[in-house]
């Protein structure tokens, strides 16, 4: 129950007139209808809404009052249950530590496959005909509508093996006419451009650089070391920087906070570190030069000053804000880090393991299908009988 002060109940005269008019018009009607009309009028008043929001904000994190009404002996037992819950949180933390160890173990099993993927992309290895054979899920069918004697009839034709072979030969001739590409050009750039989370970071001046990205690898911390993982971006030699490896490391923690143990919900990223990029002179896309005119206050003369300022770029990903020992950050830095953690986690969990599906767009289609299904379910729920 919220009790508004007299100040909070004050309304503009126009609002009061509207309420009075509603009351006069609705005289004799159902009391519930009058109450609803009055509520609508009040909810349209920004001062009342602001007052309610202030009261609601004050209730966040506060007890419901039910615990205070319990007998002392019952409260004592509830405290015992909460102590059990803390122990559960510590067991859950151990569970996630073992999950991390399993991830590390299976990462070693996946890696030979990822290495072969990298070799194919880089044209180090040419896959055999057997490795390139991909069986379609179902035979392709072509349906046409033909008109005969004024009536339309539909006929379905199934592509025969002979037809498929002719199409294959025709496609091969087209490939021969073109320049023979090596490996899979622009593989990772295409992956990035196909994923909204990553494409939002890309600028036009980033794309020529990312064409040189050859592989992304995930490395987990060694056994017995603090929980962490690294994203290693491998580049071929290029004109933009001398590095062939750019690294981003995420430090994690899997233990309940002593002050707020019930907030534990699995491992959380505590901070991240990037690396120094050794840019070629004049090629640093994370900086831009601007010219500003300055007027002298006394003499009135004008001079042009050149300044170097930060520039939007994907490569800012490798220079995240530093987290101070106190752990306190301003709102902008918190927002940047929150987005950074989401991107790092997504690259580790989705992009690296399923890169080819993001390259072809199939992974994105799967994600879209999931959202469509949810939307259909939601529509079903509100559809009238």
Task: Give a brief description.
With 385 residues, the protein is α+β, with helices and mostly antiparallel strands. It has helices at residues 6-9, 13-25, 31-43, 46-59, 66-69, 72-121, 129-132, 161-177, 187-194, 196-199, 207-210, 331-351, 355-360, 362-382; strands at residues 141-148, 151-158, 213-220, 228-235, 245-253, 268-273, 287-295, 302-310.
Can you give keywords for this protein?
single chain; alpha+beta; extended; disordered N terminus
Task: Kindly describe this structure.
The chain is of the alpha+beta class and about 375 residues long. It is built from 14 helices and eight strands. It has helices spanning about 5-10, 15-25, 30-45, 45-60, 65-70, 70-120, 130, 160-175, 185-195, 195-200, 205-210, 330-350, 355-360, 360-380; strands at about 140-150, 150-160, 215-220, 230-235, 245-255, 270-275, 285-295, 300-310. Strand 3 (about 215-220) and strand 4 (about 230-235) form a beta hairpin. The model is unreliable at about 1-30, about 140-150, about 155-160 and about 370-385 (pLDDT under 50).
